[in-house]
Specification:
The chain is of the alpha/beta class and 182 residues long. It has helices at 8-21, 37-52, 70-81, 95-107, 126-129, 141-157, and strands at residues 3-6, 27-31, 62-64, 89-91, 117-122, 135-138, 166-169, 172-174. It has six helices and eight strands. It has a six-stranded mixed beta sheet with strand order 3-2-4-5-6-8, with helices on both faces. Helix 1 packs parallel to helix 2.
């Protein structure tokens, strides 16, 4: 089956690498729907990166939520804040959902990043305009679209010699003010 996909495993891995480099060891991850292949790949990236840095992740630090749903992420954030030892950083399933986390943290009287660090995923414009700007992993949507179109044209023009393949496209880490050094 042919596909052009964002490298979700590597994306979350890079977020955790950044956190580990800044001294974070208590990293929580609010993820999207369990049935999603994207979620499974991101969870693998999260656990692989934590293992590579010798970080033990309590089960209570992994909280399911819904993609692009600020309300459910606010609920998940409150759940993490209620833990006896809260995380030093929360990674949100996407930048839009991170808004719910921002609101829940503000309601709890916590400041980003002084009291708790946060990260997102996607690199949408919104991540640049919230205060503080969100550290996030930006998917390379232009490359995804360009490669998908090129592969489709190749498949149409040369169906007998084109093998279906899965191509993974990397993005990049966008810096912001939502993470602090420990």
């Amino acid at each position: 089956r042919a596909a052009v996909l964002s490298d979700n495993t590597d994306g979350v891995h890079k977020l955790v690498d950044q956190l580990a480099a800044l001294g974070h060891e208590r990293i929580a991850y609010i993820h999207g729907e369990n049935h999603s292949a994207v979620t499974q790949k991101r969870l693998v990236g999260f656990y692989r990166a934590c293992a590579a840095h010798g970080i033990t992740v309590p089960d209570t630090y992994i909280v399911p939520s819904t993609y692009r749903d600020a309300k459910s992420c606010a609920v998940a954030t409150r759940q993490l804040l209620a833990l006896p030892q809260r995380p030093t950083c929360i990674i949100f399933p996407d930048d839009f959902s991170a808004l719910g986390g921002y609101n829940a943290l503000a309601e709890a009287g916590l400041s980003i990043p002084e009291d708790i660090s946060v990260m997102g995923y996607d690199g949408i414009y919104l991540s640049r305009v919230v205060k503080p700007s969100l550290v996030t992993y930006q998917q390379n949507t232009k490359a995804l679209g360009r490669l998908a179109a090129d592969k489709l044209i190749e498949l149409i023009e040369h169906p007998r010699v084109t093998l279906p393949e899965q191509i993974r496209v990397s993005g990049k880490l966008l810096d912001g003010g939502s993470v602090r050094i420990l």
